[in-house]
Every structure is written in C-alpha cells, then in structure tokens.
Amino acid sequence: xxxxxxxxxxxxxxxxxxxxxxxxxxxxxxxxxxxxxxxxxxxxxxxxxxxxxxxxxxxxxxxxxxxxxxxxxxxxxxxxxxxxxxxxxxxxxxxxxxxxxxxxxxxxxxxxxxxxxxxxxxxxxxxxxxxxxxxxxxxxxxxxxxxxxxxxxxxxxxxxxxxxxxxxxxxxxxxxxxxxxxxxxxxxxxxxxxxxxxxxxxxxxxxxxxxxxxxxxxxxxxxxxxxxxxxxxxxxxxxxxxxxxxxxxxxxxxxxxxxxxxxxxxxxxxxxxxxxxxxxxxxxxxxxxxxxxxxxxxxxxxxxxxxxxxxxxxxxxxxxxxxxxxxxxxxxxxxxxxxxxxxxxxxxxxxxxxxxxxxxxxxxxxxxxxxxxxxxxxxxxxxxxxxxxxxxxxxxxxxxxxxxxxxxxxxxxxxxxxxxxxxxxxxxxxxxxxxxxxxxxxxxxxxxxxxxxxxxxxxxxxxxxxxxxxxxxxxxxxxxxxxxxxxxxxxxxxxxxxxxxxxxxxxxxxxxxxxxxxxxxxxxxxxxxxxxxxxxxxxxxxxxxx
Length: 546
Prior knowledge:
By secondary structure, this protein is mainly alpha-helical. Helix content is 77%, strand content 1%.
C-alpha cells in the first residue's frame, strides 16, 4: 500500500507518459518469453533434435571470434592513438571510426564481389600477372569469412570506447611504471589493460550484440544462426510458435552475454587521488612510426577504403540502370520512415529522461534502466514480438474498426507502417535516450529549480529553459538513431508493409539475387548518410571539449 500511495502521489503528465511508453516497449518482449513455455509442435521437435545445436555453435563461434579480434584490434589502436605521436595520427584518430558507416551486410556483398572468380583480385592475377589460382582460396562465404567482415566493420566500437577512456587517464600511471623499469609492452599488458577492462568489455559487448542482431551477413554467407533460423521458420515454414521459441532462446542468450559482461567487469574501480594529467604521448620515429602507420592503415583500408572504392566503381557501371523514379521512391521511403521514427524516439527519450531527472528515486531509475532493454535484443526477436503484440491489439480493437468502417479488415495496424515504426522505437530507444540523458546530466537541476520557483510548470520550464541547452544532445541523439534506422535490415525485412522497400531492403534483394553491382548505389547512399552523422557527432564532440 505504501508503494502504491507513493506512485499515486508522484503521478503527473511526464510520469504517466513515461510509464505508458515503458509498458508498450516491454510488452512484445514479455509476450516472447511467455510463449517459450507453450506446448511444442512437430517443427520445434525437429529443430530441437537436428538443427538447434548448429544454431548455437555457429552463433557462439561468430560472437566469440569476432569479439576477440575486435577487442585486440580496437584496444591496440586505441593505445597507439592515445599514447604515441606518429605521422597521420590526427587523421587516423577519426578515420578509424569510419568503418562503422558501412553496415556488415553491405561489406559482405562487396568483399564477395571483390574476391569471387570474376572479381578484381582474381581477374588481376589471371589477366595481368598470368597467375592461375584455385578459386577456393578466395572463397569468403563461410563462417570465418563472416568473422572477417564483422571484425573489419565493428572494431571501432572497442576503439572508440577504449580511446575515450584512455584519454582521461593520468600520465602518472605510465610514468611510475617506467620508473619501475617497465617497457612499453609491459606497461600495456600490466597497467593499461587492467585499468581499461571495463571500457574494453563495454565495447566488446556492443560487438557481440551487433553480431547476434545480424541477419544479412549470415544469410548471404549461408551460416546457420539464430537470426537466420527465425527468418526461415517464420517465412519458409510459416510456424510462428517455433519462431517465438527460437526468439526466446536468442533473447536469453543476449541477457546471458550482458550478465557475463557485468560479472567480468566486476566491482573494481580505479580512482586517482592526485590531479589527473592527460597521457603525454611519446614520439615514435623510424621503423616504429612506420609500423604504427601501417597497422592503422591496414584496418582503415579493409574496413572502409577498399569496400567504398569497389562500390564507387560498381556505381559508375550501373547508375544509368538504377537511377530512376523507383529509386527516388526508395530514398523517400528510407528517409521519411527514419525521420518519423527518430522524432518519436527523441520525444520519448526526452519525456523519460526529464521524468527521471525530476523525480530521482528508485522508480525513476528503474524506468531509466528499462529503456536500454530494446537495444540489447536482436531485431529479429523484436520483430516477432511486435507481430504478436500488434496482432493481439488488432483483435482487441476489432469492435472499434467495425464501428468506424463496417467493411474494415481485421488486421489494421498489422498491415500498416505503424508496426514497423513501433519496432524501430523499441529497438533504438536506448540510442536516443543515452544522448538525451547525458545532455540532462550536463544541464543539471539548478536552472530547472530556479524556473519552478518563478512559477513555471514542468512543461514550460522544459520548453523555455532546458530545451535550448539540450539542443546538442538532441541533435546527436537524432543523428545516431536516424543512421541506425537507415541501416537496419532484419526489422525492416520482417515488418515492412506489402510492396514497401527501403534502401536497406533493396540492397539485400539485389545482392540476394546475385545483382551485387546494382546494389552499389543504394549502399553508397546509406554509407554517405552514416558518414554525415559521424562527422556531425565528431564536430559536436570537439565543441564540448573546448
């Protein structure tokens, strides 16, 4: 009763909206977990007996191997950029983020086109060098090829988070280690890695979640994972019950990864009692400088330059065929869907973040934490949950549909764009919320309390006082969500209305139909939008440092 009385006393428009938003966001995921305990059918028994083991093993291999390689690459380059001066360092500092602009499924199509029998590599070896090679040596369409693709485009997650952490560390840690006779390698192993463990694990966890969310790479390379299994069960077999059970297992796997990250991170914290001095970068010369440039250039080239140049070449060959009214419609679909969903996400983020800041109690903190659930759940899982939730809602609202139009169909929301927008909000709310919440943290409550003392209500205070100071955070959150939605493939493939395509789905269709060249222009536009967002965020970050 005391808890209920507390909640009733705290109710206001911002808190009511926050609770409604969170309930809507959590409902599809709860439905999935509930259906895990329903009676299994013949398809599920077949999957469990003959196929489930392969799904688990393949998914585990992709996650573990990609996580290890991304951790190694991201951590090493973060340390190079943070601790050393060498030629082109300032360029590589931001250029190593650019591989994030290329979605993994686009990188997969591109590298397969580069390395196949008619691709530029084998053609050059045969025609220009006269070297006959066995094509199987260049076959990238395997689980190990998928690991290579994921590593090349996802290592920036570890790089960015680890570099940001290292740039805030004190030079005294390294200086003391050097006074004790440790060389650069020993300092990296015994000092930098232990204190950076939390940041490295945070980046590696993001990589693992992205791998589990993937559908395009696994489907194109023929790797049987949970995501491809969900698609196959739903579309090929038409079995929603078995798809829900697979989705529930994948969701539990994701929760297990997040829990493991918390355990590995532990309770250790590193507090510096003295005044923090930024790391003083050591000047590299000669062979050492060349090696540092070479390492950074290799990852930048394989992650961004090579696939982008290949796509540009293909676009020159196919632009006359592709650029037409239909392609403009694809662009319009992608932009307006991403625009509407991003506005919804930022609006919900502002409401929940402001409520959490104002109340600052256990209930507000719980609401805040629940916003992060959607991003940790793969798109295919969210799509299945949304289908189930919206279908149930349509059946509950059938009386209303009939009242408005006696000839109305049963599935009104389920056949509309609403279902896709709802799924986008669930999946990417955490992205927008993190940016908005960090903006509120920087603004604080001082100006809010002063405005309230002058008689302004919460909404008036937000519009007149908080919003002008929150603009950079809102812009960065909007840019991040807009780009993520433009690139999203699994959700869009499952939930799009009939005959509704975006740049991402059309790219997948072209590549799936062995028309990789025709997929280049749509891919380049997605990459260009991502580049613009990365540049905007980089500039906003520079302004905050000044």
